[in-house]
Amino acid sequence: MILETLSNARGVSGNEAAVRDLILEAVREQIDEHQVDALGNLICLKKARAEGDGQPLRVMVAAHMDEIGLIVTGINSDGSLSFDKVGGIDDRVMLSKQVLVGDNAVPGVIGYAPIHLISPSERLKAPDMSKAVIDIGAANKGAAEGLVNIGDYVTFHATYQQLDNERLRTAKGKAFDDRAGCAVLVELLQSDYPVDLYAAFTAQEEVGLRGAQVAAYRINPDVAIALEGTICDDLPKEKDDDSSPVTQLGQGPAITFMDRSFIADRRLVDLLIRMAQQHDIPYQFKQAVSGGTDAGAMHLAREGVPSVAVAVPSRYIHAPVSLLSLNDFDHTVQLVRAALSALQGGLPS
Asked: Is 67 a catalytic residue?
């Protein structure tokens, strides 16, 4: 399954080449053209396969290849590695996590003082990650320098696995934000559409929507759709907490009406709702105005682009491992496929 392949791949922001190569291999036979730009975006064109009046709509569908991770900032005398974060990571999820360092995937662990050496007052606070290091088992600085370099990227070490849940068909893995979106886009390219589909697998989303900004300028689309893996906070819950979760696993793709980076075009939101209802596809709304997606950059390109975001709900995003429903994944493919097919003749009024 392409989701497994992409989840297991390593590609922190600015270092997406390995992911890009896997995607191109998967879609090469389904596309008419492709190019890789200066920032490392992979832009694939699948030309319209249906005859119509006038020029077909230019539709950009984007999913970002990069994942959150770390970067080595120093090699210490004891052989440990200093590091900094690439993208938004909560310090509390990092302690003692297994990691892979550099192109050679040198195994390591994020080291921190054991509980026996932490005062009771410190235990009540978030850990001070300036005191943490990556331990690769090197005896000293020279030994570590033989294995890694300053500037090496670091990924969390987690392996994709389907879990035993027949109803939700769950899977756990690394980087579902946004390898889930990338896998959806790969699946979408297996079908034909009445629009010129520009599939943009973008770079550096986690550090500021950078790839989507230049890709949208280059494509100059009429319509844009961002595919994402988004917040799913339906577990765990505090006792007597009646607040609605942002999304729920198994309830279908999440449509964003607004986040911190853009306000969705209402015509596209209505189109997605209409397609879901017509094709009996479950859907939900992202019930929080938070985060940002490639739509935040795409909708500002040139004179402006009508944009919307659709996401696969994923528990524990921006953590070393996440969990999603394969039913939600399949329904996201179905919903966006139906929406693309319905765009023949232009954007609905």
From this structure: no
Any idea how long the chain is? 349
Q: Are 113 and 96 in contact (CB under 8 A)?
A: no
Shared domain for 249 and 275, answered yes or no, is yes
Angle at 272 between CA 271 and CA 278, to 5 degrees: 85
pLDDT at 244: 83
Task: Determine the Cα–Cα distance for residues 26 and 42; give it in Å rounded to an integer.
Answer: 13
pLDDT tens digits, residue range 26-65?
A: 999 999 999 999 999 999 999 998 766 678 999 999 999 9
> Is residue 215 in a domain?
yes
Which residue type occupies 113?
A: A
Q: Domain span at residue 135?
A: 69-156
| Residues 199, 319 share a domain | yes
Share of the chain above pLDDT 90, in %: 83
Task: Indicate if 196 and 305 belong to the same structural domain.
Answer: yes
Catalytic residue among 205, 228, 238, 303: 205
Q: Are 12 and 100 in contact (CB under 8 A)?
A: no
Helix (H, G, I), strand (E, B) or coil at 184: helix
φ, ψ of residue 58 in degrees (nearest 5)? -95, 110
Say if residues 323 and 263 touch (Cβ distance below 8 Å): no
